[in-house]
């Protein structure tokens, strides 16, 4: 059964605040082989004008996925995650994420379409810091393969 | 500075991805989908075997982008479509990913818009991949 198109425009509540840690950034850097000093050494980051080590750009997915998870787990939307394929990903950055940030994500279904027995969702995830400062926006296009 | 006269050196970048990298990325990102570490599960859902996380591929392209920009915070906008899976065999060599960029244009703000490709063997694993970067 196709997804209910009336969910387009629906926003989910903010995620539980996520505190970004230096060692988490280091772990992420090691996993992707990133060796930028500004990501590993607080002093190097400060020289570039950041308050602490900065995260590699795609670290943002840790935040945006926590928002997307809320809609994946929404029984009213009824997404079958075993048939979901991540089709596209986009990030628009306002500033780098840095250690010490406390971030929340609000995910919104921007679009739901059905074609050829498959459903397509575009989910926008706005990641904000304390005080509501927008840090990064992610767009994930999910394809739900037909049965 | 005349943006039209600026150039950016964009040497091809090659990355090797092994099963160990997938395990590390799963832990670091929190993405424990078994298609990225369990051959039995991957085969059952019709994949050629364990495949890399799409976001790991995107992260490696991101490394190339920040190197090209000479700026660890230089990515302004980054968009990819995961066109084909990156199969990672259970070998010491794993899979090899080649990332290339072509300068599309300079924006009025002095940002470079790059068209990107990522290939694994003969497969183009990304399509419609583009980034806007702010060089240092």
Please describe what this structure looks like.
The complex is a heterodimer of chains A (147) and B (136). Chain A has helices at residues 22-32, 37-40, 42-47, 60-72, and strands at residues 18-19, 84-93, 102-115, 118-128, 134-144. Chain A is an alpha+beta fold. In chain A, 23% of the residues lie in helices and 33% in strands. The longest helix of chain A has 13 residues, at 60-72. The two termini of chain B are 14 Å apart. In chain B, a hairpin with a 5-residue loop joins strand 3 (95-106) and strand 4 (112-120). Chain B has a single domain (12-133), classed as Roll (Thiol Ester Dehydrase, Chain A), CATH 3.10.129. At the A-B interface, helix 1, helix 2, helix 4 and strand 2 of A face helix 1, helix 3 and strand 2 of B. Strand 2 (84-93) of chain A pairs antiparallel with strand 2 of chain B, so a sheet runs across the interface.
Give the ordered list of helices and strands of chain A.
EHHHHEEEE
What is the helical fraction of chain B, as a range of percent? Answer: 10-25%
Assign the structural class of chain A, choosing from mainly alpha, mainly beta, alpha/beta, alpha+beta, or little secondary structure: alpha+beta
Oligomer: heterodimer
Number of strands of chain A: 5
Strand order of the largest sheet of chain A: 1-3-4-5-2
Q: Which descriptor suits the 3D outline of chain B?
A: elongated
Order of helices and strands of chain B: EHHHEEEEE
């Amino acid at each position: 059964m196709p997804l209910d198109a009336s969910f387009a425009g629906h926003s989910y509540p903010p995620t539980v605040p996520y505190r970004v840690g230096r060692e988490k950034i280091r772990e992420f850097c090691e996993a992707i082989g990133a060796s930028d000093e500004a990501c590993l050494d607080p002093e190097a980051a400060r020289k570039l004008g950041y308050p602490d080590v900065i995260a590699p750009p795609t670290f943002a997915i840790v935040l945006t996925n926590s928002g997307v998870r809320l809609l994946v787990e929404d029984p009213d939307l009824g997404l079958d995650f075993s048939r979901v394929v991540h089709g596209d990903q986009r990030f628009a950055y306002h500033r780098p994420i840095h250690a010490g940030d406390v971030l929340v994500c609000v995910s919104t279904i921007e679009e739901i379409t059905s074609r050829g027995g498959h459903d397509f969702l575009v989910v926008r995830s706005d990641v904000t810091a304390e005080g509501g400062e927008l840090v990064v926006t992610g767009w994930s296009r999910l394809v739900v393969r037909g049965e | 500075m005349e943006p039209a006269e600026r150039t950016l050196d964009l040497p091809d970048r090659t990355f090797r991805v092994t099963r160990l990298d997938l395990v590390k990325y799963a832990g670091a990102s929190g993405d424990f989908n078994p298609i990225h570490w369990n051959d039995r599960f991957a085969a059952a859902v019709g994949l050629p075997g364990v495949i890399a996380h799409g976001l790991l591929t995107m992260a490696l392209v991101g490394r190339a982008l920040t190197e090209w920009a000479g700026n660890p915070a230089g990515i302004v906008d980054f968009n990819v479509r995961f066109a084909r899976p990156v199969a990672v065999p259970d070998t010491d060599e794993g899979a090899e990913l080649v990332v290339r960029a072509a300068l599309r244009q300079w924006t009025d703000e002095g940002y470079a818009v790059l068209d990107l490709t990522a290939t694994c063997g003969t497969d183009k694993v990304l399509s419609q991949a583009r980034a806007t970067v702010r060089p240092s």
